[in-house]
Amino acid sequence: MAHIDLGNDLPGIRGPMAFRPETAKPLNELAEILLRDDDNTLSRGERELIGAYVSSLNDCFFCQNVHGGLAQYYMQCDMPFIDAIKRDPMATSLSGKMKALLVIAGKVQASGKAVTAADVAAAREQGATDREIHDAVLIAAAFCMFNRYVDGLGTWAPQDRQYYVNRAPQRAAEGYIDFDLYK
Amino acid sequence: MAHINVPEGVPGIRSLVLFRPETGKPLYDLAQVLLRGESPLSPAERELIAAYVSSRNHCGFCMNSHAAAARCLYEDEKGVVDAILTSVDTAPVSEKLKALLAIAGKVQVSGKSVTPADVAAAREQGADDREIHDTVLIAAAFSMFNRYVDGLASWTPEDPAVYEEMGRRMAKGYVLPQTNQ
């Protein structure tokens, strides 16, 4: 049970979003522009993967499965591949650029101050642009917020991981702005 | 120097949202609704929570700017801000606010570290669900803002007068900056 009476029994972030729509609006607008907008040289799958990776580091079950499910859908891969990335991105077949961006995202998860000039230089050497480095940092930072919002209020999450995989195509089509919190 | 090519001479998050206004817009909208919108917590109390979490994250820019905004909003009671940043236990604020700051401090570490006992303690001091919700989201949001500002190594001015000026502007609300000025 959630720590407060949310007035609904929705899972994860949807509970507090329905409780307080005024703050849900900019939160969803941020997710839409950051994760789904097509004016970006990082694919939707790559951006969702950064979100899933950081959520996994923060041990947030709901977020890592929602966004892992979306990454899996966009990247047309399977759950074991997503899980391998969460365990150790370096041991996977991801591009050198994505590996370097996930190193930065992992540092941001620990603390903004943990990101070094060498981390950023390593990402640039793999072809990452300033915009891509910016977005990787902001996605990682944003998930440090979303994860805390979801777990700090003690929301519940469906435990069957397939639930999130099954919902991913619909969630990908709807996006983060024009969707029904109750569906 | 910042890790990426943001406008020079512009401090903190302002330089980052000038670099990428598309994401800056919802970030500033979030700050406005969360810190200035309708809430049972006063804008001064909400700025204090923001400064407290930023202090725990060692984010000098966010801590100094939101502390300055809180001092402006607390007016005659502005001493409260530095008292809290020094020690919550001895600061002259209500037990309710202390209990909410304890929750904010837990959220700063991890969402999962907030316990039913923390929430019950805040309720015993009169905190309602909306106040607990807003406290958790403010603490979570500053766990983002702090990482954004420091993760890109944006410029953190040293001069306290810069933050006083910033605090006066922030006390009026959050509007996405359009130019380097």
Topology:
The complex is a heterodimer of chains A (183) and B (181).
Chain A (H helix, E strand, L loop, with lengths): L13 H6 L1 H16 L7 H14 L3 H15 L3 H9 L8 H15 L6 H9 L4 H23 L8 H14 L9
Helix pairs in contact in A: 3-4, 3-6, 3-8, 4-9, 6-7, 6-8
Chain B lengths: L11 H8 L1 H15 L7 H14 L3 H15 L4 H8 L8 H15 L6 H9 L4 H23 L8 H12 L10
Helix pairs in contact in B: 1-2, 3-4, 3-6, 3-8, 4-5, 4-9, 6-7, 6-8
Can you give a write-up of this model?
- The complex is a heterodimer of chains A (183) and B (181).
- Chain A is mainly α and 183 residues long.
- Chain A has nine helices and no strands.
- The two termini of chain A are 20 Å apart.
- Chain B is mainly α.
- In chain B, helix 3 (43-56) crosses helix 8, helix 4 (60-74) runs antiparallel to helix 5 and helix 4 (60-74) crosses helix 9 (160-171).
- The longest helix of chain B is centred in the C-terminal third of the chain and has 23 residues, at 129-151.
- Chain B is globular, with a radius of gyration of 16 Å.
- The mean pLDDT of chain B is 97.
- At the A-B interface, helix 2, helix 6 and helix 8 of A face helix 2, helix 6 and helix 8 of B.
Give the distance, in angstroms, between the N- and C-terminal Cα atoms of chain B: 19 Å
Shape of chain A: globular
Strand content of chain B: under 5%
How many individual domains of chain A?
Answer: 1
What is the C-alpha radius of gyration of chain B, as a whole number of Å?
A: 16 Å
Domain unit count of chain B: 1
Number of strands of chain B: 0
In short:
The complex is a heterodimer of chains A (183) and B (181). With 183 residues, chain A is mainly alpha-helical. Chain A has a single domain (42-173), classed as Up-down Bundle (AhpD-like).
